[in-house]
């Protein structure tokens, strides 16, 4: 059986974790053949669990030009994702990119254009799309049986981080090194799921508190109000400072409510459409009956390895991707909109003004301080 030869660019936490799993033969269609990292200590560490015959490179460019790979996984700091992906596309290599796709949408738009021109497979590491609960929520919401969305609320505050975490790297939690805080680092998966399940909002008003709970220059506490094209509304709340944290996604629709919390998906289903009931009922304080049930959400929850397997099968057999790379711009635009709204103190409509966002980001980069 033909195998896909993959190289990993960036051997930090995620890159090294992928390497350890792939070298153990977790995915039969994939052969890990090369790794690269600018930090020679990381490369040396990787040699303790990878074969000596591997390609080891101190630059991504060397790995891309080595001829040892058919595809690459990009697991570097955020700003480098589009640049490295474009280089790989130009060499005819398929690309699987860690989240986020980049730091600002103007950068990622070029990335997407080059992906289309190249004709290679481009995939995003949105591993939470493999979670059966979120897949079931998307099916129920977009299937129409519960009617239109009226409201969505996501409180996702179980991203607790200490000051030691932020102090562990000079690039962490800086505008110049990371391009943001909780929105760009911890929450890209949640923001992707929000738009994947509910669709993109039409406008956002956000409040991003920078260095509220930690000694950092980027946001560690966010509350955002969303409006969607059909008039439904939403609230997205996140922080890296709550103990204990909460992870509750609640979607209210015309025919009931979905609640995802504590590893369980609960459906509160109305016997009648609320919109019909509201105007046809002759009583002022009555409610239609509600049936509460735990929704079975079974299936493969293969996370990162599931995305990599899907990537390999798309290249080798033409099967659909779990997360097409070009979709990465949607969640990034949503987080960019939250930042921009907070920076200028106004409601931001979609599509956002990409030039204004980049202008505001560059102002913050110019005064950014590496630790």
UniProtKB/TrEMBL annotation:
Return the Pfam families for the record. GFO_IDH_MocA (PF01408), GFO_IDH_MocA_C3 (PF22725)
Which PANTHER family does the protein's record reference?
Answer: D-GLUCOSIDE 3-DEHYDROGENASE, UDP-N-ACETYL-2-AMINO-2-DEOXY-D-GLUCURONATE OXIDASE
Q: What is the lineage of its organism?
A: Bacteria, Bacillati, Bacillota, Bacilli, Bacillales
Record domain Gfo/Idh/MocA-like oxidoreductase N-terminal: where: 4-123
Q: Where is the GFO/IDH/MocA-like oxidoreductase domain?
A: 134-258
What is the organism field in this record? Paenibacillus xylanivorans
Q: What is this protein called?
A: Oxidoreductase
As one GO molecular function, the record gives:
nucleotide binding
- Which InterPro entries has this protein been placed in? Gfo/Idh/MocA-like_OxRdtase_N, Gfo/Idh/MocA_Oxidoreductase, GFO_IDH_MocA-like_dom, NAD(P)-bd_dom_sf
